[in-house]
Amino acid sequence: MLTEKSCGAVIYKKDGKFTHYLIVKYSAGHWSMVKGHVEKNETEKQTAIREIKEETGMTIQKFNSKYRIEKKYQLIRNNEKRLKTVVFFLAKVDSNCKIRLTKEHTNYAWLEVIDAKKLLTHKTDKDILDNASKFLIN
Do 13 and 91 contact (CB within 8 A), yes or no? Predict the structure, then answer.
């Protein structure tokens, strides 16, 4: 079975006492978090930071590599079954940050965890966001 790996981050910002999480709508129609494929000789952290910059134009204020969650699932791409591994970290951005989406995305939203989970398409993403928000509380 073919394998592929992506890395990204649960991106958040603090607005007073509220924490808002960034979710993006991909051109394919699903809502998720920022992530992308690992390039040759790149670490997981380097991939996540690069993908955030490329896909949103944002600079990270604080990157929490102590938080790391990995999910594996199967998918079919080009009529071939693949095992995909996705690794997420936590990344805090400035509350006044500006987003510049690429053509890979059609929309974005900054939402509190309960509303973000309603908009996310895949259960795996909802679980990751839930886990990350609990990590931030503790």
Answer: no
Q: Which CATH class is domain 2-137?
A: alpha beta
Q: Across 16-111, where does the E strand assignment appear?
A: 18-26, 31-32, 35-37, 62-77, 80-92, 105-111
DSSP-derived letter for residue 95 is T
Residue 75: predicted pLDDT: 83
**Per the structure block, which two tokens stand in for 21?**
């999480």
pTM over 0.90: yes
- Answer yes or no: are the C-beta atoms of 104 and 26 closer than 8 Å: yes
- In what helix (H) or strand (E) does residue 115 lie, and over which residues does it extend? helix 113-119
On whether the CB atoms of residues 57 and 98 are closer than 8 A, the answer is: yes
Q: Which bin fits 79, alpha (ψ -120 to 50), beta or left (φ > 0)?
A: left
